[in-house]
Write a structure and sequence with these properties.
mainly alpha
Length: 229
């Protein structure tokens, strides 16, 4: 907004006026901006699908554990391991860290425990637990992929650069079109409003880019995907 105000002021002060085809300039900004917003929204919707798959796998594992013939001690240990997985999964998604090593180790502990009790845990139960453990692995990896790999950084940088450059070109062009004697306040208003719209769209995209941090209005409510909610 400061750049927009300064652009209009400098154009009037130094009488800088020229004409540029604003249609091409608008396409150069709006098209990639809309593309990145749409890409971020699709990532958010995919994240919701994977979170549902994650909770479904966790809930099913709980069902098998609580309704099986496991000893009370074994049941308690497995429940504790699943609680650790849930806590670390949600904590990882809310953080800015890309490493998932700690979470992988927690999931591996479930396999190690089942393997260590292979003589006492029935084969049918083991097969079911491993099946839904596989679904849990897949959901966590998909969520981590969305968390780490975002929309193309180069395209975002391109949009941001052109948004900041836009008022430098737009201000002298609009003054040239309507005449330098036109109401100055109206020119300031139009240029600053246009820039406000563009930077607002960019900020919306940037908010959607991080769907797990729970800082934006449209972020995912991760607590709704806990096993016990």
């Amino acid at each position: 907004m400061v750049i927009s105000f300064a652009s209009v002021f400098l154009c009037y002060h130094f009488e800088i006026f020229f004409k540029v085809d604003l249609t091409l300039l608008s396409i150069a900004i709006i098209f990639p901006l809309v593309f990145t917003i749409r890409g971020s929204f699709r990532r958010r919707e995919k994240a919701l699908e994977h979170l549902s798959q994650y909770r479904s796998a966790m809930k099913t594992l709980y069902y098998f554990i609580t309704t099986s013939t496991l000893l009370e001690e074994e049941e308690s240990i497995l429940k504790h391991l699943l609680e650790n997985i849930e806590d670390k999964t949600l904590l990882h998604l809310k953080s800015q860290q890309s490493s998932i090593k700690d979470l992988d180790e927690e999931v591996d502990k479930v396999y190690e425990f089942i393997h260590s009790r292979r003589e006492t845990i029935p084969k049918g139960l083991k097969d079911k637990l491993f099946k839904y453990l596989c679904d849990l692995h897949e959901a966590i990896d998909n969520l981590n992929g969305i968390h780490v790999h975002r929309t193309p950084v180069s395209l975002k940088a391109y949009c941001e650069v052109f948004i900041y450059i836009f008022p430098l070109i737009y201000a002298p062009t609009i003054i040239s079109e309507i005449g330098k004697n036109y109401n100055h306040i109206a020119v300031y208003f139009v240029v600053m409003l246009t820039e406000f719209i563009l930077i607002s769209l960019y900020n919306i995209q940037d908010d959607l880019e991080y769907p797990f941090d729970e800082k934006g209005l449209d972020d995912i409510k991760l607590n709704h995907f806990k096993v016990l909610r």
